[in-house]
Structure formats: structure tokens, C-alpha cells
């Protein structure tokens, strides 16, 4: 592997640097490093992948040291997921009288946009601003790509300001094949706020802010449409701070990824070792909480002392509309993109480190 075109900003500076990684076996990958004071974020043009997120030199994301490992099979470390994130029941939906069939890649369902979703695109990219540091990634998905109707263009803008990494997603239907399509994009980083000091996140303390319910799912992890409340499903609610580990023995739903509905879109997680706190804010109607149950024997970054990523080595908070929203009458309209309109969603990952 050869790297070139490298620009490295001084420590605690503000700006964007980039490095182009070359490999004879695949296309080059460009990595952009956004720096703002003690916080940095590195994003790859492959998958518009968030590969590093650091505060005071502590990298809180699971992932790989070699950028070309992201082109191989992995548990979607840091990628942009689409056209639709999560599951679509039986890989099928109806839109304007036409039934569309998607690749089946998760039991009987279609997961995370199919076999070649947006996470496997080489995105076009350019620096938008040095202060605040911002980079935009754009890609297109053609009509019937992975079975989805219509040609779309997607833009993802990463901006780093005062410890806030904002991810702004915009999608447009640009083809003339259909008048409507389906869209539900999210970001999929795995966090370990200890910087890999702890092999699991079980001692991390999590709190939900203004979560109103969680969607009940069936045996294949598809929502039934029923919303469970605190009184009917108390173990899924962290409206008061509690550790992941205190609930894992009680919550089988953690293994089937319940989608939580929220009013304010805020979640906070704190690590007892580094005193790092992550706050997640979004304008999405809810988020998926995943505690890395399926991670198994993955070599960690060299900066992570744990050495291996296994069960519970990281957690994901994936703001989005619900799984299978296109087949749920109450949520269907939230994932339909019409010609001439834009689908937008904002996610903010905020890092703080307390003394």
C-alpha cells in the first residue's frame, strides 16, 4: 500500500487535511481528516465511512488501521447505510401499484440496502470549508439498483465544530423512471468510549432523553406496528442512567435491535475509564440501539489495547425512521421521496471529556 498527497494539520488546529491511499488491487481511497481543537474525525470516500473520531488523541470508534480493510466484509464499521437502513420485511414493498423485490440477505429480509448498498460505493468528495472543517460526499444509485425504483443522488456532509460532528444527509430523486421512491439513510459507527482500554462497553452508562416508546418486533426483527411503553417494556428504557451490563441479562430484545421512538432525539453515554461522554442528537423520529452482540474475533486497531473485537466491544446508535417503515402505515410516508422534493436528516455526534 502506498500513500500520497498527505497534508497534516498541527495539533489542536482547525482545518481539513487529506491523504490518498493507493493499492494495486483496488481503487484509491481518499481519507479526509477534520480537525477542530482537541477533536478530529476521519472520513473515507469509500462508503463515506467515518473511520476515526478522537478527542484528546483517544479514538472512540471500532474499525481498521488499513483503509482497504473497509472494502472487505465487515460489520459495517462507520459506513453510511442506504438506500434504506435496517430491515425490509421479506425484501418486498409496494409503491404506486408496483411490487418491488429486494435482495434477501438477512434471514427472510433485506438488510441495509441490499448486497451492494451505499456502504460499498466510492463516493465523489470535496472539501467545502477549512473553518469550520467540512467535507461533502456524493453518489448516485441508478433505477432498480438493489431493486429500488428511481435514480437518486445522495449527498452526505460532515462538519466538525466544537466537538460536534454533524452528518447532514440529503437525497433527491433525479431520474424520470418513477415519481416516488423509498429512502431511509443512517450512519453506522461502533463506539467504544474507553478507546479500546475496556474490551466491552458493559460498564458504560447510558441515558435516553424523552424516549416515548419502542417498537415491538417479530421473530425476524420486523416491527409489528405495536409501540411498547415504559410500563409494558421497562427493561428497554434508560430514561434514568444505567449501565449496558445491568440490562443485558434482562433484555433479549438487545439481540434483535429494537427501534426506540423519541421526541428530542438525544442519547448520552459515559465511559468510567476515560470520562468521555457521547451525546447523539438527531431530527429522526427514533434510533436503533445495537450493542455489538454479533461481533466476533475481529482484529482491533493497534491503538485499541483490547486487541480483538468481540461481543459487546462497541455500541451503535443509528438514528433513522423505523425498520420496514415502508410497510408500516403509521410510518410509511416518512420514507417516501417524491420527485422534486428532498429527503433530509441530521445526526450530531458530540464528544465531551470531563475532568
Helix fraction by DSSP (H/I, runs of at least 4):
under 10%
Low-confidence stretches: 1-10, 252-257
Rg estimate, integer Å:
19 Å
Q: Tell me about the biggest sheet?
A: 12 strands, antiparallel
How is this structure best described in words?
- With 355 residues, this protein is mainly β.
- The protein is 1% helix and 46% strand.
- The chain is built from 1 helix and 28 strands.
- It has one helix at residues 244-247, and strands spanning 2-4, 14-23, 26-36, 39-44, 49-55, 58-59, 79-81, 87-88, 92-95, 98-101, 110-111, 124-130, 133-141, 152-161, 164-173, 180-182, 186-188, 205-217, 223-228, 242-243, 259-270, 276-282, 286-290, 298-299, 308-309, 316-320, 336-338, 342-353.
- The strands form 7 sheets. Strands 12, 13, 14, 15, 18, 19, 20, 21, 22, 23, 26 and 28 form a 12-stranded antiparallel β-sheet that branches. The protein has a 6-stranded antiparallel β-sheet with strand order 1-2-3-4-5-6, with no helix packed on it. Strands 7-17 form a two-stranded antiparallel sheet.
- Strand 4 (39-44) and strand 5 form a beta hairpin.
- The radius of gyration is 19 Å and the shape is globular.
- The termini are far apart.
Search tags:
355 residues; mainly beta; twelve-stranded antiparallel sheet; 28 strands; 46% strand; disordered N terminus
